[in-house]
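Re-run with default settings, no changes from the original entry. Doing this only to confirm the output is reproducible before filing.
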Amino acid sequence: MNERDERCRRIPHSGSMCLLDRVLEWDNNTIICEAVSHRDKGNPLSCDGALSSVVAIEYGAQATAVHGSLLGAKDERTGQASYLAAVRDVEFKVSWLHDIDHPLTVKAERLIDDANGIIYRFSLYALSRLLVQGRFTVMMSMDRKIRVKK
């Protein structure tokens, strides 16, 4: 199984909805991923070949999901269902992503983490150019477990 397939197996999306191509680096608080799917005319979130920068929120959310999965092996919340509960302070520096020629760098950094949820800051870059940034609140479900797809 290749890296992309393995990563897609661990988040709630599959196939073309798995937008990230690879994890560049990660540690306990930060993950940095790369994506080129923004240039794909068949991107499931595009409209007539155009991809709004609002979709950056999904790129960031997928990076946080991958980060949670990678951390899961050493976390007592392994397999615990989580939900994107809020998106705040989003700043759009561009209107569109489909016309960005370079790969996207997607960074997510944990700011606060407790038993009920996590707050992440996310950002998308092309080279050193900031495209979109904001914050997520991810809430943890106390009563449901999720399963990794086989």
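Strands lie at 22-26, 30-35, 80-92, 104-114, 117-126, 129-145. Confidence is low (pLDDT under 50) at residues 144-150.
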